[in-house]
């Protein structure tokens, strides 16, 4: 699955290029608990089609009810207070102000969120934005609240959404990427989970017998040596590299190259003993130090007592998502620490 923001913006662009009226909704403020974070977006077409999400579904339904003729003809809609998508400057709408409204819209107790609605965003600006994102660029999008005028600029780093009295500033980035070394069964499960989590997945395995059995069509499969693939992949801050072959000839050099990059996660499968042996090899034969290997994760995953490839993949994906989202996991869920404590007991 692609990056959700890119999917939303691409569909919105297509609606507008086809001459259809549409709006873009962005979560700009939240109070208490909310189902979607600030910066989440969705697009609504005049025919009631919707893509993206700003809640668990009830708010989307209300926006459809308010701004389209999807459920009734124009006369009936006007009689019940519904209207077509308006024109002009962006507007705000708030949900969950009262306990009854929060319950009605499926918001957690005390939850309130506010949306900015942009009516009929410019098709040419959307085309340019999608083109930049598809080329791998990070883009800052600024919306003037007085008239809806949009400007785009390259961004050096992702930033949180900013809202002032004059403008909304949001950063859109290319999709997250995952490079997996080895095309075994565990890789198939992990690749599948990564794809539906919004990662673009590349799998590297020079062993023909493993590539021949690969079954996850949406992942790109390459056959070059892993260290060469890492260099060609050019991992950045939105990339992770995971070695899954258990073969030092394939894993070690790829991991060493990955550690030279800005990848947010670099790790390898294996037992505590194998992980220790990997560190010792890299220090003895490649001149690494404990400091230079500090970013190398292993054994990877969080401890959930997993034994099967599917469960191990869940464990690894959970850790990758926690690191991606900046969540510091308790030390007692790290595989090595949890197993050490179990054996000590």
UniProtKB/TrEMBL annotation:
Domain XdhC Rossmann: 178-320
Coiled-coil annotated spans: none
Protein name: XdhC family protein
Origin superkingdom: Bacteria
Location of the XdhC- CoxI domain: 15-73
